[in-house]
Design brief:
Order of helices and strands: HHEEHHHHHHHHEEE
Main location: mitochondrion
Low-confidence stretches: 103-109
Strand content: 5-15%
Family: Belongs to the mitochondrial carrier (TC 2.A.29) family.
Pfam family, one: Mito_carr
Distance between the termini: 57 Å
Largest sheet: 3 strands, antiparallel
Number of strands: 5
Keywords: Membrane, Mitochondrion, Mitochondrion outer membrane, Repeat, Transmembrane, Transmembrane helix, Transport
Subcellular location: Mitochondrion outer membrane
Shape: globular
């Protein structure tokens, strides 16, 4: 069993590392950094618009500036953070199962025969356990998440303040104290908790009343998770912005990024600007600033890009 778990963690780490350049580009987009200008395009409805280069072109820009290994800036703390979070989450979940005695039952076969009250009780019981285990994993791994995001956005200002994990942790403590390790933690927890509860509720509801094939029921939660994550994305965005805000790095300081007093202040500011979905799309990224017509072509207003 231990060997299987280690293999799963190893596979997860390799996947995370392999996809890191895409995550790196997405974090830079989330912080509002757009090094490549938008270009004229046509929307699906035939309307002329301006679009930013997609995430693959963004990654290509990073490679052009920093070389191949530059695309993996921040990969090590990200892999370590994810691995620690998964291990803690798994162990807490196992301990909860052992601590709370519950009669074993085959829910996949009996769920249709359960009364609504029993169904809701089982849903709340299982989801509460998952919430506690995920929360523990996030809290323990969050300091390294802060390190990861700060390592990434150094690309903007060409800084090297956050280098190794230990030197980065010292820098965070020196500048921000203990609370600096948990910058952006509250919106991250709120987004995760909402995702877990809504996803589990929808998945069980669909499996109970709509999905009849037993093999298909195992995919329902994943499908619901993708849909729900779209609606809880603003919490992910605010988390990453608050993880770097007021860190002293160029990308996290005015005029590149406003200084926020709290995550609610950040959420409110992004909402007022219609930017709560910034970075959510990796391919069709529409420019939303002011535009002008020049020589019959739509271009960004010069003062908007200043």
């Amino acid at each position: 069993m231990a060997a299987v778990s280690l293999a799963q963690y190893g596979t997860g780490a390799l996947v995370t590392a392999g996809l890191h350049p895409l995550g790196f580009a997405k974090v830079l987009i989330q912080t509002g950094y757009e090094p490549l200008p938008p270009k004229p395009s046509v929307s699906l409805f035939g309307k002329e618009s301006l679009v930013y280069p997609n995430v693959l072109q963004y990654v290509s820009h990073i490679k052009k500036v920093d070389g191949f290994w530059g695309m993996y800036r921040g990969v090590f703390p990200r892999v370590v953070s994810g691995t620690i979070g998964n291990i803690v989450q798994h162990n807490v979940a196992e301990q909860l199962k052992k601590a709370v005695k519950k009669k074993a039952e085959d829910k996949s076969e009996q769920e249709e025969e359960q009364e609504l009250a029993t169904w809701l009780r089982n849903f709340c019981y299982d989801t509460a356990q998952e919430t506690v285990s995920r929360t523990c994993g996030i809290i323990v791994s969050h300091p390294l998440h802060v390190v990861t995001v700060r390592c990434m956005i150094q690309f903007v200002g060409r800084e090297d303040t956050y280098d190794t994990i230990f030197s980065s942790l010292r820098e965070i403590y020196r500048n921000d104290g203990i609370l600096g390790f948990f910058a952006g933690l509250i919106p991250r927890l709120m987004g995760e908790i909402l995702t877990v509860w809504i996803t589990n509720f929808l998945a069980r509801l669909l499996n109970r009343y709509l999905v009849e094939e037993k093999d298909m029921k195992s995919y329902t939660a994943a499908a619901c998770g993708l849909v729900v994550s779209h609606f809880t994305y603003p919490f992910t965005l605010v988390t990453n912005i608050m993880a770097v805000n007021s860190s002293g790095l160029r990308a996290a300081s005015p005029p590149q990024m406003p200084r926020y007093d709290s995550w609610l202040d950040c959420f409110s500011d992004l909402s007022s600007k219609g930017q709560l979905k910034r970075g959510a799309s990796m391919f069709w990224r529409y420019y939303q600033g002011p535009v002008i017509m020049r020589d019959g072509k739509l271009i960004p207003a010069p003062w908007a890009l200043a």
